[in-house]
Structure formats: structure tokens, C-alpha cells
Amino acid sequence: MKKVTLYSLSTCPVCRKVRTFLDENGVPYTLIEVDRLEGGEQWVMTKEVARHNPQGTYPTTVVEEVIVGYDIESLRNKIVGDGDGAAG
Amino acid sequence: MTPERLFEILTPYAAKQGFWLNSDRAFVLDILAGLLKNEERYGYRSCPCRLASGTRESDGDIICPCAYRDADVMEYGSCYCGLYVSEAWNTETIERRIVPERRIRKEENR
After folding, report:
1. pLDDT tens for residues B79-93?
2. 3-class secondary structure per residue, chain B
3. B81 to chain A: nearest residue by CA?
4. Are the Cβ atoms of A46 and B110 closer than 8 angstroms?
């Protein structure tokens, strides 16, 4: 199960292109329009974006693989079999 | 002001400075709507693809045309948000790449 979060700006057409792509492909996602957040909440969110994307630019799309329980097949495929930065 | 009116104003303005507006008119109108939205919110036309801090002083470099436009168009054929481009970019005689952020992140407004 993939968990998708799109950090975007409400004024940014490129962000809208990513949204359209996700919508057209039926991908469920959490949309966070950072420019619409208020002061403290916006500051916290920019730190969260920077954790994923040090440049802190938008759009930033984060795709997290969620593995529930001791699902050994998924653990093996998604972590050990990934190859890029797989668990040591 | 409407995005369409701003489009009419910016087209000759860009040409005078040696730039073109993106040939994707719908995309440009979207960008201009974002600029006008930011002008309404902050009082200045902050780049619609960058998070403004809300204070003119620290956003001075991203008020459109941003301080990075000329270097970006020179290097990539397009500015960061895709509003201003080169002729080669519009005629697709150069590769269209994603323009990386040239702005150095300021800790206090990021």
C-alpha cells in the first residue's frame, strides 16, 4: 500500500500538473497547500518538506510504502529487494 | 486586473527585455493568476511557484521577474516557474529540463 503526500502551493501551476497526474491515475493522496497554512503551522510544514526535500521547493511529492504486520514477502521485496539503500 | 490583461502587458515587456512568454498560453494564464493572487495577499507579485514569507524585504528576490530569471533562461531556456523563456525553448530546439532552484534557502523563511 502506497501513501502519497503532495506538498504544494495553491498558486503554482506546476503543482497543479502533479495533482492532475495523480487524479487522472486514480492515486489517492494527501494534499497540503503550504501557502494556505497560517504562521506556526506553515513554519512546521516547511520543516517537514525540507526533511524530504532539502531544497524546500514545491511541488514535493512523497511516496511512502506502508507495510502492515509481519508481511515477510513485502518486507523482502520492498526493503531487501529494493537495491537502492536497502537495509544493511 | 485579470490574467488576460496582464498577459497583454507582459508580452511586449518581455520582448523588450529579450525574453519570450511561454507559448503554452493556458499555463501562462495560470501563472499570472498565481502572481495576481500573491499580489492580492502580500501586496507584491511574488513568484507563484515559491513559498513567500509575506514580507517584501525577504521576498525581494522572488518578486516577478525574480532575481534568478536571467540566469535561468540563459542556462535552461526557462525561468524557474516557466513564465519567461527563450525562443529556443519555445521552438523546442533545446531540451526542456526542470529548472532547479537557484535561490539559496534562508533558514528563517523556509
Report:
1. 999 999 999 999 999
2. CCHHHHHHHHHHHHHHCCCEECCCHHHHHHHHHHHHHHHHHHCCCECCCCCCCCCHHHHHHHECCCCCHHHHHHHHCECCCCCEECHHHHCCCCCCCCCCCCCCCCHHHC
3. A14
4. yes
* Measured distance CA(A27)–CA(B21) in Å, rounded: 33
Residues in chain A closer than 8 A to B48 (CB atoms)? 9, 11-13
pLDDT of residue A82: 53
Across the A:B interface, residue pairs with CB atoms under 8 Å apart total: 50
Q: Are A3 and A63 in contact (CB under 8 A)?
A: yes
Q: Quick one: pLDDT at residue A86?
A: 42
A58–B49 C-beta distance less than 8 A: yes
Please give the Cα distance from A12 to B31 (Å, whole number). 7
Q: What confidence tens digit (pLDDT) does each residue in A65-78 have? A: 888 999 999 999 88
pLDDT-derived band at A14, boundaries 50, 70, 90: very high
The topology (CATH level 3) of A4-69 is Glutaredoxin (3.40.30)
Tell me which of A11, A18, A20, A57 to substitute to probe the interface with B (most B C-beta atoms closer than 10 Å): A11
